[in-house]
Amino acid sequence: MPKKVLLSVDTGIDDAIGLLIALKTLDVIGVTTTFGNTTVENATRNTLGVLHLAGADSVPVAQGAKRPLVGEPPPPSSIHGPRGLGDISLPISSKALCPLPAPLFIYEKLKTASTHITFISLGPLTNLALALKLFPSVACMIDEVVIMGGSTTYGNVSPVAEFNIYADPESAQIIFRSGCQIRICGLNVTRNVSLSASQLNMLSKSTSPVIQTVYKLLAYRKTKLKDLLGIESLSLHDPTAVLSCVEPEKFSFERLHVDVELRGQLTRGMIVYDIRPGTYSSEPSLFRPKHAPNAFVAMTADVDGLATSIVTILQSYE
Ligand code: RIB
Ligand code: CA
Fold first, then answer.
1. Pairwise CA distance, residues 284 & 276, whole Å
2. Exposure on the CB side of residue 162, measured as CA atoms within 13 A
């Protein structure tokens, strides 16, 4: 039985592919959208377009945050193109967007679900943070929060911060301190997940409209990452985070305490991972972790195995 999940996305090229993978491997009971890679309005339209392309118009979508809890949204990234999906604009169905705001939608979905739900966040964490603020019982209704965010090595928007956490660190702090079970899949793993030239070539030859679209999105991403940042890897962040929930055996995780820096002059938005040796103790001690672990953090992954999984799952689209 696939896990029942709610997704939050800022669709976004890698979100779009993450969503397509989730639709084939998980039981997606709803999607919320947020600002991030683009405006929330674009993210919503892109999400509806991806669902329509995948024949999944029945999956409800609720629009979410336009901005973070504090401050303004970061400027949209040119890596994702002017509206978020490269140079593509996907048709959407006439299906109406769910009228509930995202935090209420999350609460309603959790309340009416017959089982605990996994929440997968592929963008800034604002929607879930607002749901937790409004309805604290949400923490007990979630099986696990799977987060694409952070990095145990270096960041992307700053030397130490990753985009999704940096875009709304106050929301990340609410989630890290909520008592929810957390699984973090950060840049240290996701930036190394790419497709080979022959895998891309294979996708390019497909006659499936879904795979043709994915190929166009990946080709756009490849050019932008190379031209703007000099990066060769496709850095499939969001599909990798989805797979950390589907194929956890392809990752090594460490159980750690995590929190987020809100004030640092150079470090705002950085996840602080307590990787010190020594077990946590409530006894006062300078040199040991002072908090019990609250997250499983992905440290390494079988990146070739994940690339194969991504291609195989995408190829199941007719
Ligand atoms: O830092 C990578 C993350 O930021 C991905 O989720 C990407 O889609 C953007 O949201
Ligand atoms: Ca994203």
1. 16
2. 28
For the chain, give the mean pLDDT: 95
d(CA 31, CA 82): 22
Terminal Cα distance for the chain, rounded: 22
**What pLDDT does residue 154 have?**
98
Average the pLDDT over 235-255 and give the result. Answer: 98
Contacts of 297 (CB under 8 A, 6+ apart): 152, 184, 186, 253, 254, 255, 256, 258, 273
d(CA 158, CA 166): 9
- Say how far residue 23 (Cα) sits from the centre of its chain: 14
Query: What string of DSSP letters covers 199-235?
Result: HHHHHHT---HHHHHHHHHHHHHHHHIIIII---S--
In the reported structure, the alpha carbon of residue 239 is separated from the centroid of ligand 1 by a whole-number distance in angstroms of: 10
State pLDDT tens for residues 153-184.
Answer: 999 999 999 999 999 999 999 999 999 999 99
Q: What is the pLDDT of residues 98-117, one digit of tens each?
A: 999 999 999 999 999 988 89
Q: Find the ligand nearest to 156 CA.
A: 1
Residue from 77, 163, 221, 271 to probe ligand 1 pocket by mutation (most atoms less than 8 Å from CB)? 163
CA-proximal residue: ligand 1, atom 10 (nearest): 123
Which residues are CB-contacts of 272 (< 8 A; sequence separation ≥ 6)?
258, 259, 260, 261
How much is the pTM? 0.97
Q: Which atom of ligand 1 is nearest to the CA of 13?
A: 8
